[in-house]
Amino acid sequence: MDTKQTHKAHRVRKAGASAKKKQQKTKNAEKNNPKAFAMQSAQRADRMARRKAELDEKKFHVPMADRTPKVAPPIVVAVAGPPQSGKSTLIKSLVRRYTKHTLSEIRGPVTVVSGKHQRLTFMECSNDISAMTDLAKVADL
Q: pLDDT tens across 94-137, in order?
């Protein structure tokens, strides 16, 4: 069982299509010196060198994450005035104008989509000076 098995060596083709292809490759290798024609275009070599340098430089800079929100915050509209002056009626009519829905009563801030990238938030303010100052801090209009 200790006898080593020897395999027959691969027989090289001497005739046929694959032999002709192999001969063509060896003839072309003898004719052409690849090192002599390494750089055929100076502009292309310059462009490639610049691109490689640019890509290498990019690796040193850590990209900053874009923290800007995709949708802009809504514009806050404060409606202030004395009692029975039509604040709720104004907000209801604006909501009806933008959404084609009617509100029976207003509870808290109401946000409507007024455009493709714009929202409006309506807030009703009572006739109290402290409520007015608090709402003035956050209101845009």
A: 999 999 889 999 999 999 998 888 999 999 999 999 999 999 99
> Tokens 């959404």, residue?
99
Prediction pTM value: 0.52
In this structure, are residues 116 and 80 in contact, taking their beta carbons and an 8 Å threshold? no
Count CB atoms within 10 A of the CB of residue 40: 7
- Give the DSSP per-residue string, 22-71: HHHHHHHHHH--TTTTS-S-HHHHHHHHHHHHHHHHHHHSPPPP--S-SS
At CA 73, angle to CA 132 and CA 78, rounded to 5? 20
DSSP state of 102: -
